[in-house]
Structures are given as structure tokens and as C-alpha cells.
Amino acid sequence: MNNYTTAVIFDRKKKANKDTEGLLEIRISANRKSYYISTGVRVLPKQWAGTVLHRADAETLNERLGSMVRKVAEEVTRCMADGREIDVTAIKEHLFVVKNPQASEPDVLLNWIDGQIAALNVKDGTRQHFRVMQKRLEAFGRIRQWEDLTTENIYAWDAWLHTLPKPQSKADIQAGRERECISSASVHNYHKDLKSLLSRAVKMGKIEQNPYDRLRGEFKKCENESTEYLTEEEMKALESLHPLAGTQMAMARDLFVFQMYTGLSYSDSQAFDIKDYKRVPAADADGSRGERWVHVGERIKTGVAYVSQLLPPVVEILERYNWQTPKINNTQYNACLKVIQQALGFTSKLHSHLARHTFATWMLANGVPLEHVSKMVGHTNIRQTQRYAKVMATAVYDDFEKVAKKMVAKKNSKKMKAEDGGDWKNEEMR
After folding, report:
1. pLDDT the model gives residue 195
2. CA–CA distance, 284 with 29 (Å, rounded to integer)
3. Contact status, residue 252 vs residue 242, Cβ threshold 8 Å
4. Helices 124-140, 151-161: inter-axial angle, 10-degree rounding
5. Among 251, 261, 260, which residue's Cα sits nearest to residue 350?
6. Surface-to-core class of residue 375, CB atoms within 10 Å of its CB (0-12 exposed, 13-18 middle, 19+ buried)
């Protein structure tokens, strides 16, 4: 029997750098030949030193790698003992594919998903979303083999996902705040990612049918139950808040106000370039002639066109920052917004999406047609914008109610005065 060796090697194709993960492969060296099998595991260069380091899931990954190396070694031993050539395809089948579901290994589906995620031709951020879904599925525990993909288990997973709590900050923990569950949108995205991978499984012949095809329309993306926005009073209070100039707190406030009056997303606001805007003549309300900054661009996230104009509050902010937007990373931005929210006593949680919601709702409140607002914020279709119209309808009903109460109060006041007046007159006549 010829000797052979197995080893886990990192980034054989030299694609990794400090910000890009490299693939871990199992190398089989035998008969002066080398064979490579993907593990589906990717790590950064600083996270590999013959073993996975400096990751929260390092122990789990090292256990998985060790198990895979042992399985590869067992299969290679069998091949060589039988006098057969090493069949890499057969070894991969042994690692990832179920020949007989009834005799499948406990995590064969999860292992297959792991390998597929590693092979996806997507951005790192998108791959991370799939990884989170994978971890959720693993934690659920009832879907680990191909035969576990039942309607009952999909429903059970959905119910379980809706019970998951959101992460808490140290401040939340110290304040003893009750943990909220993850949003319906997050649950929808987990279903979407799993459905996408299982569609690949159908094409590869792993399963005959995607279980989600039996559940058409069951896990649709829900509209936000409550599309919050800032009232005009809250908008003015935010603008009037003056944190120390030059601090991150001031930059966060200014960036939020910028988003609030442009409707731009965080990523689009950070990519803002005044050179993209044209100055065009315009008539002001007082009849004088002025200029407007206008731009037709495409959203970074979706590529959908949007129309933007710089309103006076936005111009004031840009002038303070040498015609640039305040530059602050998203984590720091949200942390500062949380402090500002608490300082102002707002019930609505301040975040970049709230700024867009406020812009859209404010525009509708000022009589801008729905179709135009949709173009301003760069929605893919007008149905996305209609939720703001629903919010406005609720606000209008509230306004009607306020007016109705005032009218009733005024009527009652007149009635009381008339009755009091009548009694006075009668008393005088007596």
C-alpha cells in the first residue's frame, strides 16, 4: 500500500487579502499526485495558522475541519486498500451527498448548505446574510437532513424564528429593557435565502421538489406593521439640537437631517458628490429668481433611478462640511443617533431608514403626488411608496378627529353660554 498524506491548506489560488476571505481545502498527496477538495470554509489570513483562530465560531469550524479530514482519510484508505485510483468525486459524494436518506449522517444537509454558500458568486455582505441563515437553521435543530425538509418543519422553523430576540446593547442590558423579537422582514429573508439554496438542490438533483413550492404565498414579505416617521415638531426639535461642533454627535445629527430632507439612504448619502448636481434657475415664492441643485442618479443598493434636489437645510449642512456629507461609519452613526433620541425624548428609534420614512411622509403631507415621491426616494415600484400614503391616511384621520373634537367642544361651549345667559337674563327680570 502506498503512503499518502492529507492536510488543510489555505487560499491555494492566492485570492485572499486582509479584507477578503480565503478558501480552506483538503489536500490529498498520493502517488506523486495532489488532489484538492473544498471544505466550504472561508477565513481571513489573520484567522488561519494551521487552525482557525480569532473567530467566535473557531471551535465549531475546527471540529468540522477535523471531521472532514478524517472522512477523507477513511475514503482514501479504502480506495488504496482496494487498489483503486483515488476518486475525488466519490470522496465529495461521501462528504456532502446523501445516497440513502434513511442512512444519512446527522448534518449532511447542513454540510451541503455550507459548501453551497462558499461557492456562491455574491458579495461578501450577501454571503454573510446566508451564513446567518445557516446558523439559525443549525440552531433550530429540526432540519439537518434532506428528509427533514417537510412542510411541518418549515412551519415550525418559521414559528421558531419569530421568537428570536434582537441583539441588545450594554446600555439596554444595564437599563433592564425588555428584548424585542426580530422583525418579520428578517424572518422573510431567512426563508428567502433557504428557498434559494434549495432551488439549487433541485437543479443538482439532490431533491425532487423545493418544499417552498408546496407553500406558495405562505412566507411573503410583510409590509412594515408600523412605518414610523418624525412629526414636523420633532423634525424642528432635531434641527434645533446643537451638539458640540466637530464631534461625532454633531456629524450624526447633521447626516440624519441631510437624509431627512433628501430621502437618500445611508450608502447613497455617504457616496454623495456635489459634482453630480447641476445648478438650474428657478422662481422663488416671492417672485424672485433663484437657483436649485438637482440630480438624477441611481441608488447604490438597487440601481433604481431617483431624482434629488438640495433643499435649503441641506445646503446649509453641505456648506458646513465643505460641500461634502458628514463621514461617519454606520455603527458609530447608529450609536450617536440613539443618544440623540434619548436626549430629545423621542419615542421613535432614530436610524437612517427613519430619515427616509420621514422624508417620504413629509413630502406627501405637503401635497407632493405619490408617483413623484416614489421617484424621489428611488423605489423599485410605487407599491413601496403606498405604505407612506397609508400612514398619511391614518394621520389625516387623526387630524379629522382633532378638528371634530374642537368643533364639538366649541358647540358645547356656545350652548353653555346660551344657557348661562338665559339664566342671568331671567334672574335680572325677576
Report:
1. 92
2. 78
3. no
4. 110
5. 260
6. middle
Amino acid at residue number 268? D
Q: Is the pTM of this model over 0.85?
A: no
Q: Which residues contact 168 (CB under 8 A, 6 or more apart)?
A: 177, 179
Find out whether 278 and 293 touch, Cβ atoms under 8 Å: yes
Range among 150-159, 367-376, 383-392 with highest mean pLDDT value: 150-159
- Pairwise CA distance, residues 188 & 114, whole Å: 20
Q: Which three cell numbers stand for residue 363?
A: 413630502
Cα 279 off chain centre by: 35
Pick the closest to residue 306 from 273, 248, 246, 265 (CA basis). 265
Cα–Cα distance, 381 to 304 (Å, whole number): 10
Stretch 400-414: mean pLDDT, rounded? Answer: 60
Domains and CATH numbers, the chain: 1-96 (no CATH), 121-222 (no CATH), 232-389 (1.10.443.10)
How many Å separate Cα 62 from the centre of its chain?
A: 29
Give the residues across from 34 on adjacent strands. 29
Chain segment 338-379, per-residue pLDDT in tens:
889 988 888 888 888 888 888 888 888 777 777 778 778 777
Q: What is the dihedral of CA 210, 123, 67, 156, to 10 degrees?
A: -40
Q: Are 143 and 137 in contact (CB under 8 A)?
A: yes
Question: What gap in Å lies between CA 136 and CA 162, rounded to an integer?
Answer: 12
